[in-house]
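Fig. S4 source data, part A: sequence.
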Amino acid sequence: MLLSRRIERGLHDGASIAVERAWQIDFSNQGNGYAVTGRQVSARVEAPAALSALARIEESRSTDGMFPILLSASGLVVAAGRYTRDHDIDAAVREAKSVIGGWAIPADAKLMQLQYLAQLQRSAGSMLEKLPADLFFPGPAPARSVQTVDLPEGLKGEFEVTYEARRAPGGAWLEHAVRRVITRIGESERRSSEVWTMGEF
């Protein structure tokens, strides 16, 4: 089977960065459930020219560490390796800090924005990088959740996550799924989305 994921994140200037990867995967019986093994077969990054160096690094990064993925008897993800390492997240935070540093706002306000960013990053990381529990065998109903994060000066940060998946015709396994994350802080809003597909290799 071929599993693919495209994730797109909005940037501060209205541009976006997109990362698309594909893996050849296999399912096998494992204890009372199943194991998904696989290997990455392609990676492509679309990014503004200013981020071309980072895009090349991302394209060369292996994500085979996400396997094996263990599924329960009902097909839910119960364990998986990591395919986003700590230093990958740290690099994204450094880039965002650089963006904030270029804003024309007072130094004290910049410091507060950096503090906000650190808190939001800790909360957002798990939302964006954790595999949907029913990724391979999706449930019938879409899901929506909202998480609020308290920030300094009485501000609120908010994450809204929606997830909707479609089963393959005549089957219970994944054909197409979309997860969207909206991050809000004050009047600012950023949108991210990821699209998963699975089909014949």
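Fig. S4 source data, part B ends here. The two ends are 5 Å apart (CA to CA).
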